[in-house]
Design goal:
The protein is α+β, with helices and mostly antiparallel strands. Helices cover about 40% and strands about 25% of the residues. The strands form 5 sheets. Strands 1, 5, 6, 7, 8, 9, 10, 13, 16, 19 and 20 form an 11-stranded mixed β-sheet that branches. It has a 3-stranded antiparallel β-sheet with strand order 2-3-4, with helices on one face. α5 packs antiparallel against α6 and α9 packs parallel to α11. The longest helix has about 35 residues. The radius of gyration is 26 Å and the shape is globular. About 5% of the residues have low confidence.
């Protein structure tokens, strides 16, 4: 059974915020070992005369206070699921909260060189590299490494941050699988290639840290009513245990597919051309067989036969990829194990019933609707999985479509969401809405 844990992390209060007052908060642990959160802020200024109070259900797995370090968060959230990744399973860690609440500090961190307080992603990378180095002592021919992919989702498109923010498209293939592919590239000899999100193979922690930093520099930010460098996208960082041979086999599939495209197009063109010549239009607007042209079935069959040859090469490349994976996985069960970090877009777009109004532009409102659609879809996917529903609504948004293979890879793995919240009274409405969302996710993820 897939479990979904929800944690709350209070960020520190800044000197500028200290004069505005601090949210009063209580955490109550229940017999189920889950925790409820209660927050309160006295009325002041334009707020209603009564106090604002909100209490969650018993949905939180743990609470991190302002003085807790990233290491404390890592030990509680990520360390328990790393053994599953090293067994070849897929686990997901989400950060959710309004802009400026500490999501990026939690997931990525700002002290890239510090070993004591790395963000969760880099701390995970370091642990994975150390574990793989031990396995590689007996695996010098085709060593295990960490493949990293970094991309961001904005509306219906993805942007590859390890490929100069190349625009990609989220599509469901005829095989039912979800693909994130870039724009079509025209190559020599009529080849047409559509590359997937780039995977950078890293064999040391230093390599991975460098790739991560370079990629995240390209993440889009934009001015918002809340935060002048607010992220308007969901950032996805995938860490996968790979080998060089496996990545080469995957590249071979892409290469064979690129060779198939012009051959397949030629076969289609030949068929359409022959069929067009073989019919004529009647004066009454209908169609009939052209008595002056004999359909060249040999030409059609020749083109189709060549297409079939290239299709067979694609199938052979896919079979080789499966064999490479299977052979290595028998030696190292960790192959293919993934830990996916998702830094969700800032959730400052809310309908506050307390009387506070936000001066949002029309563009911000439009972006907010897309973000809300994604976040609602994610909650419904988590709920449906926890309830064992026959139909999981992955198609509800590009975000859940992209996450579908990660959720489906290992049904018995664990995932987590960290709610990053501000203790400032001025952020009470945003903090309350973050906790409300987390409460719904936690209740759904722990449903029996």
């Amino acid at each position: 059974m897939h479990s979904f844990r929800v944690f709350t992390r209070w960020r520190g209060i800044t000197p500028a915020e200290s004069s505005q007052g601090e949210i009063k908060r209580e955490h109550t642990q229940q017999e189920s070992a889950l925790t409820s959160v209660s927050i309160e802020v006295p009325s002041r200024g334009k707020l209603p005369t009564q106090k604002q109070v909100w209490t969650s259900g018993s949905s939180m797995t743990g609470i991190f206070e302002m003085n807790n370090s990233n290491k404390t968060v890592f030990d509680a959230v990520v360390a328990p699921i790393l053994p599953q990744v090293l067994q070849g399973k897929s686990c997901n860690v989400f950060a959710y909260g309004h802009s400026g609440s500490g999501k990026t500090h939690t997931i990525v961190g700002y002290e890239y060189e510090a070993t004591s307080d790395l963000g969760l992603c880099l701390a995970t990378a370091r642990q994975l590299v150390e574990a793989l180095n031990r396995l590689n002592e007996q695996n010098v021919c085709d060593p295990l490494g960490v493949g990293v992919r970094i991309y961001e989702l904005r509306r219906n498109n993805a942007y590859d941050l390890l490929n100069n923010r190349g625009e990609c498209f989220v599509r469901e293939g005829s095989d039912g699988q979800v693909y994130i592919r870039g724009k079509t590239e025209m190559l020599e000899n009529g080849k047409v290639r559509v590359k997937p999100i780039v995977t950078k193979a890293c064999w040391s922690f230093e390599d991975l840290s460098r790739e991560l930093q370079e990629g995240l520099k390209l993440r889009a930010t934009g001015m918002s009513s809340v935060h002048d460098q607010s992220s308007r996208t969901h950032a996805v960082i995938e860490l996968e245990i790979v080998t060089k041979t496996l990545l080469e086999a995957r590249d071979a599939v892409i290469e064979r597919e690129s060779e198939l495209v012009p051959v397949g197009k030629h076969a289609t063109d030949v068929y359409i051309e022959e069929q067009s010549k073989a019919i004529i239009r009647n004066p009454d607007g209908g169609y009939a067989t052209n008595p002056d042209y004999q359909l060249d079935q040999v030409r059609i069959d020749t083109a189709e036969a060549r297409k079939a040859e290239f299709e067979a090469l694609v199938d052979l490349a896919k079979e080789n990829e499966s064999q490479v994976f299977g052979t290595t996985a028998r030696k190292h069960a960790c192959l293919g194990g993934k830990l996916v970090f998702v830094d969700l877009a800032g959730s400052e777009y809310y309908n506050d019933k307390s009387g506070l109004k936000m001066n949002q532009s029309a563009h911000e409102k439009q972006i907010g609707r897309h973000i809300n659609t994604d976040l609602l879809a994610l909650k419904e996917v988590i709920r449906a999985r926890a309830q064992g529903s026959a139909r999981i609504p992955f198609r509800s948004s590009p975000l859940t479509m992209v996450l579908r293979p990660h959720f489906q890879t290992s049904e018995d793995s664990h995932s987590a969401m960290i709610l990053t919240v501000s203790p400032s009274s001025s952020d009470f409405a945003a903090t309350m809405n973050t906790l409300k969302y987390g409460n719904l996710v936690g209740a759904a993820g722990n449903a029996k």
